[in-house]
What we know:
73% of the residues lie in helices and 1% in strands. The protein has helices at 14-25, 28-41, 44-71, 78-85, 88-120, 141-159, 161-189, 209-223, 239-268, 271-274, 280-288, 291-315, 317-325, 344-360, 363-391, 406-425, 427-456, 458-466, and strands spanning 132-133, 138-139. It is mainly alpha-helical.
Amino acid sequence: MTKSAPQLKRQIGFFSATIIVIANMVGSGIFTTSGFVMSELNTAEQLLTAWLIGGLFALIGAFCYAELGAMFPEAGGEYVYLKSAYGDLPAFLSGWISLIVGFSAPIAAAAIAFATYFFGSTSLPEPGLDLLENDWIKLSPVTLLAIVAVVVFSLLHLHSVHIGKGIQNLLTLYKVGFIILFIILGFTLGNGDFEHFRPSRSVSEEFNFSSFAVALIFISFAYSGWNAAAYLGSEIRRPEKNLPWALIAGTLFVLLLYILLNLLYLYALPPQQMAGQLDIGQTAATALFDSKIGFWFSAAIAFGLLSVMSAMIMAGPRVYFAMAQDGLFPDHFGRIHPTRHTPAAAILLQAAIAIVMIILSAYDTLLIYIGFTLSLSAIITVAGLMVLRRNRPDLKRPYRTPGYPWIPLTFIGGNFWILGYTLYSRPEVAFYGFFTLLIGLLPYGFFKRKQRRTNKNPISCTLDLKK
């Protein structure tokens, strides 16, 4: 990165950074995945255990990323950390994963979930009514509304960081307040039954490691976003302090919220009725109260899901921006809008990829694909922390991971266990994840050749900088 390269401004404090973490985490996952998880596990005890373990993995990851973020308070997250630990290729592949899987795919999933819940709360056309469908493309009222949501929020975040941050904070506070109110009213006034926590005699209680690992992949999608503040390191004030504590505080808060919500789902529905439910939040609300409350709950969730989509639209482009400034992505995406001071081109690129995924992807397959690929990326990043501890003891570390090296080793080992069982039970989805990495080698080779040509010609490099 050259001295003349455009720089992002530090405009985000501890509160807004924590809000970004919470907003990225609390999204479509908690309102959709518990039904899929229950299909794998069958019992209340295993469901709650899986959500607790998934939350602890996210918290351990936050401890590790806190050290990395305090060391490298720059835009880009994993891309910056891996470049320092391993070099250009692993860094580029992590940025490639962020572009396709880390942000564009979850934005698509959140937009689809928003549209699904929105149509569930209105008398508009049945969302399953397809306007166009073939083996590759599917357009329906749900997908069209999801596309509109992505476009609108991308333009809002392109306009300015100030407006994007304000909308983000407002939507997240609304979402968290609504969830807390739902939990309180559900347990105090809802028509639930604690007998649902007892295992049914018709359900086998035998523990299945493979099913539990796949359930954790679903759950890892719901917890994804615990590292969100790391991507905005260049824009966080006092990052050596605010960035680590935003990651940890946000993750702890969401862990508690998720356990309480799953307890409420179980209070509302027996495990066999939860299994396979996509709109588990609305189904639980209808069971606790009545169809009218379920209607309003669906509308409330729909607008709450806009928060997670907005947060990812805000964080993701900072990765592509950092890659472009290093010459590993087209130069255009490393530019800041002259009046808006936002990475406008990177925001629009991400929106375009998310729209393609909305049209092409099946929701449950998308969840496992995201969870598997992001787990692989997180393993490599946490291992990079250990590499930097060994190879770069000279680096200033304002925050140190507690329990080192056992905390990062636990994270690496646990995620490898999950990935191994996913490879065994869902090899086709794992193949998509590895294929995404392999495809990334092609643009990497192109940009490295371009980088070498530019370095051999200092005159052309100077001209580029003047543009």
